[in-house]
Amino acid sequence: SSDLMTHVMVMRRDITARTYQEKAQQEREKLAVLGEMAMYLAHEIRNPLCAIGGFTNALLHAPELTEKSREKLTIVAEETERLEGMLTSILKFTRPSKTVIEDVDLNSLAANVVELTRIGYSEAGFTFRTEFDPALPLVQGNTDLFKQAVMNLLKNSIEAMPAGGEVVIATGLAGDMAFLSVKDAGVGMTAKDIERAFSPFYTTKSRGMGLGLAIVKKSMEEIGGRVDLTSVEGAGTTVTLFVPPVLETKDQDREIVSI
Question: Which of 46, 77, 98, 180 is the most buried (most CB within 10 A)?
Answer without folding.
Answer: 180
